[in-house]
Amino acid sequence: MTRILIVEDDPYIAELQKDYFALHGYEAEICHDGHAGLSRALSGDFDLIILDIQLPGMNGFEICKTIRERLDVPILIVSAKNEELDKIRGFGFGADDFVTKPFSPNELVARTKAHLARYERYKNGQKSDPDESLHIRELTINPSSHRVFVHEQEVFLTAKEFEVLVFMATHPNRVFSKDQLFEKIWGYDSNGDIATVTVHISRIREKLEADPSNPQFIETVWGAGYRFTV
């Protein structure tokens, strides 16, 4: 059974999320404290983690950053904080999605299903041709094993970063706007969250490029979007 960790200090909201997940066949566990939530996230076998930002002990940003450094698991931030900067921080720390309170429980379940499905596709190597690696200069991308190498040195990407990279690498020399990339990769409408595209491109560059300020793979086409150059 799919297991979900809910780190939320409001008992009513946490129980509401747990009940809706149960209705859809998911098993959910609740932690009301930041430190306890991080400990469970790192020690438990969870398929997806939902984080509030304002938590006692340790905030959701810190938890997200620590989890992402050690695990590749979908992370959804659910928070009353609706500032664009908070969303950018969340994505920058490795969150896959940002849901603003008050939220529709059905929407949260739908987003959860979408992220679980995408992670499962990458774990099973079902994206692109599973037997064919992509070789672009010093960069090698293997869709089936979800591995990336630069100068034969492996580079770790999150599932979402990997999905962005594979999509752009398999559509070389084409310009995609932020809106197009958001639609292609995230696959649903989420007001204001288009900032995640910029954050993910920046993180990919930091991991792949010798000089991220002068990228050789994913270039910025000012006023238009991004282009993967081969």
Automatic annotation (TrEMBL):
Organism: Paenibacillus catalpae
Position of the signal peptide: none
Subcellular location: Cytoplasm
Positions of post-translational 4-aspartylphosphate modification: D52
One GO biological process term: regulation of DNA-templated transcription
Any one Gene Ontology molecular-function term assigned to this protein's record: phosphorelay response regulator activity
Residue stretches making up the OmpR/PhoB-type domain: 131-230
Keyword 4Fe-4S: no
PANTHER family in UniProt: REGULATOR OF RPOS, STAGE 0 SPORULATION PROTEIN A HOMOLOG
Keywords: DNA-binding, Phosphoprotein, Transcription, Transcription regulation, Two-component regulatory system
Annotated Gene Ontology cellular component terms: cytosol; protein-DNA complex
DNA-binding residue intervals: 131-230
Lineage: Bacteria, Bacillati, Bacillota, Bacilli, Bacillales
Superkingdom of source: Bacteria
Cross-referenced PROSITE patterns: OMPR_PHOB, RESPONSE_REGULATORY
Primary subcellular site in the record, as a coarse category: cytoplasm
Domain Response regulatory: 3-116
Pfam families: Response_reg, Trans_reg_C
InterPro entries: CheY-like_superfamily, OmpR/PhoB-type_DNA-bd, Sig_transdc_resp-reg_C-effctor, Sig_transdc_resp-reg_receiver, WalR-like, WH-like_DNA-bd_sf
Name listed for the protein in its UniProt record: DNA-binding response regulator, OmpR family, contains REC and winged-helix (WHTH) domain
Matches recorded under Gene3D superfamilies: 3.40.50.2300, 6.10.250.690, Winged helix-like DNA-binding domain superfamily/Winged helix DNA-binding domain
